[in-house]
Amino acid sequence: MAETAGSGRSEGDRSVPFEFKGDTYEWLGIWAVNLFLTIITFGIYSAWAKVRMRKYFYQNTYVAGRNFDYHATGLQILIGRIIVIVGFIIYNILAANPVTGIFAVIALLVILPWLLVRALRFNARKSSWSNVRFDFDGGYWRALAVWVIYPTLTFFTAYLAWPFADRAQRRFSVGKHRLGAAKFDFDARIGPFYKAFFATVAWLVLWLVIFALFMAAPFYDFVSAIEQNREPDPASALMVIVAIYGFIFLAVIPAGAIYRAFIRNILFNGAVLDGKHRFVSDMKPMTFAWILLSNAVLIIISMGLMLPWARIREARYSAAHTRLYPGGSLDEFVGDLETRTTAMGDAFTDLDGFDVGLPL
Amino acid sequence: MDILGHIYPARSSRRIDAVLRPSGGSVEVLGPLGEQLAHCLISELKIDPPLGRAPRRVTLPDGTLFETENHAAIEALSGPTAGGALHRFEAFHPRLVLVLVGIVAGILFLWRYGLDLMAGAAVALTPPPVISLIDDGVLTSVDLAIATPSTLGENDRRRVEAIFQRLIDDLPPGERGSFDFHLVYRKLEGLGPNAVALPNGTIIVTDEIVRLMFDDTEALERTIGHPVSGEDMLAGVLGHEIGHVVEKHGLRQLYRSVSFAVLVALLFGDTGPVVEDVVLEGSVVLSLQYSRRHEASADAFGVGLVERAGYDAQGLIDFFDYVGRNFGDDASFLSTHPAPSDRIEEIRRLMDQPSASR
Question: pLDDT-derived band of residue B222, with 50, 70 and 90 as boundaries?
Fold first, then answer.
């Protein structure tokens, strides 16, 4: 991927870069006030805080001098969140009982694709670029296939077929998006998906081996102490805690970043808008891993104070490695009339950590 | 005064350099050649609130979007607005230090009082059929996972029921009626001599605790070093469990952890899963102090109840004495229960007080 982008920047290059113009200090102020108002309203303001955050990052992201925008209102987000939290509590009560629990889990699996489609649609319709709204028109059955059925099937291949499921998900989630009337298309060979998959697995295995070599003794001491019902040696208990956090930071966070960077490159490089506008993303997985790892460490050390700085740093890096190759005029996109949508699915993805926003 | 910027016609991505020219009570939008593209009254403009230094956006009634970097001119046009106050409050300014202090104080307040308030409200809002559903659910799970049927004889069960009934009869009628108090017997290998209260009043009694108190009294007396009454001990334990039910500890802890998970998702959701997980894990350790507080509170409730029912609260002391000698007298910050010796001391203090003051 990196090679294509490198050669693409030669003379006669007609590409335009993505630009992120957000500023750390400015975002620090908005973030702190968001957090403060969220706390003193017992979480209610978080709906408006989310809108403000999205707006800030979208409005400060430019392509060809035109920025993105986010148009949801705090009230829409709040109503969606209330419905989802009530549903979450009911689900947990039902899930606690093994008899009703089976039905609760099945019901969730049936409803999950519907929620994700609603979330993608809501988000798309509330996002715009150059005054034209996005839209998403994926259907339920395809969503059920790519998010529930395919991932379940990969289980029987020991997850080795996961890249195929992932590609199917991206084809669906990117390919069903539109900018106004202009359709997005997405396709990619399976090779890059496997490259992302094996690079991530290799990173995790590497650290598993390192930790197994150096931490086996304290782990053994700790586990056998628990089994024999005696107090574990404080030194080995401390080592175990340090090792677990060390593994999260050195193995899990970079692994997630490596996978995200590979997939983001595949997404942009395989996406075509209106059959003529192309994109290039040339993020370096190891650089991105370093950014997310050092961000996480600094956030923890600073007790959260460095969060705004970390967010801006990540957004800047992502934008700096993304370009658009226009295949024609950017003045010709035409939007639909706005249709009504509710934020219910969106609230679900908020609370469950799905990322349905634009991959800016 | 002209405001320089650009427009997009309604629902179009076509970007046209333009100026917005206010005159009197209306505005007109002029194109690059000075031609009029749109016009309306100032009061008809939809002016988006400011956010950082991002371009100001003004929408005309015909859907034309005008964008400009000239914040001051738009402010002069719109006058002071609610969005403007928030925008000034967000500016990078020494005042932000106070906001950050406010955040820390707010988090501490939420942790100390807010979560309990939210949990209390949620407990009050939970309909009784749901609570009974929780009891059934937990009991079914216990049966599937760890319990085997009780092998207690009819005689032992009858003795336990008699004690339990005496305690229940001494509860205030309001509290007796709002729960479905009943005992179930299970053999729970891993749990040792113990009893577990579920939110709706189901109390699981292990075979081990009944055998210890009715059949193995000699072993008990050998461990503690003085004669004991099995009836008083069992009454003390059941009184403690009834305390958990009446004071709704199980439900409160459940809602406390749910409220916390939701709050963390709302506050730190945009930080990515790792920071969120670190915060949630830290909270598990910190939550244990609430569990210990509930244990102490149930002890106090139990002591009052057994004394009203005519049992000797010394029984509960003897039980903790036995637990401390047999299973260790530790209470690190990682324990769900206070140290047995601390609990004994506290019960003695309660017993020395005249009943009227309780």
Answer: confident
ipTM of the complex model? 0.85
| Closest Cβ opposite residue A59 in set B51, B103, B106 | B51
DSSP-based three-state secondary structure for A63: strand
Q: What is the DSSP letter of A146?
A: I
User: If you average pLDDT over every residue of chain B, what do you get?
Assistant: 87
Angle between helices B340-352 and B273-308 (to 10 degrees): 40
At A1 the pLDDT is: 36
Rounded CA-CA distance B88/B275 in Å is 29
DSSP 8-state assignment for residue B58: E
Show the beta-strand stretches assigned E in chain B. Answer: 3-8, 16-23, 26-30, 36-41, 46-47, 56-59, 65-68, 148-149, 182-187, 195-197, 202-206
Q: Which of A281, A273, A252 is nearest to A359 (CA)?
A: A281
Q: Give me Rg for the CA atoms of chain B.
A: 33
Please check whether residue B195 is in contact with residue B319, taking contact to mean a CB–CB distance below 8 angstroms. no
The answer to whether B134 and A96 are in contact (CB under 8 A) is yes
pLDDT over threshold 80, residue B348: yes
Interface test with A, best of B11, B104, B134 (most A CBs within 10 A): B11
A304 touches chain B (CB under 8 A): yes
User: Each residue of A10-24: pLDDT tens digit?
Assistant: 445 789 999 999 999
pLDDT band at A6 (very low <50, low <70, confident <90, very high): very low
Task: Read off the pLDDT of residues A227-267 as tens digits, 9 standing for 90 and up.
Answer: 776 666 777 778 888 888 888 889 999 999 999 999 999 99
Residue type, B92: F
For residue B210, what are the CA distances in angstroms to B145, B155, B311? 22, 11, 17
Alpha-carbon span B222 to A120, nearest angstrom: 69
Closest CA to A32 of B276, B102, B83, B53: B102
SS3 A79: helix
The minimal CB distance from A99 to the residues B57, B140, B269 is found for: B140
Cα four-point dihedral sign B225, B231, B234, B235? negative
pLDDT of the residue at B274 = 59
Would you give the distance in Å from CA B149 to the centre of its chain? 34
Alpha-carbon gap, residue A357 to A349, rounded angstroms? 10
- The Cα angle at residue A256 between residues A252 and A257, in degrees rounded to 5: 120
Question: Looking at CA atoms only, how far is residue A150 from chain B in angstroms?
Answer: 24
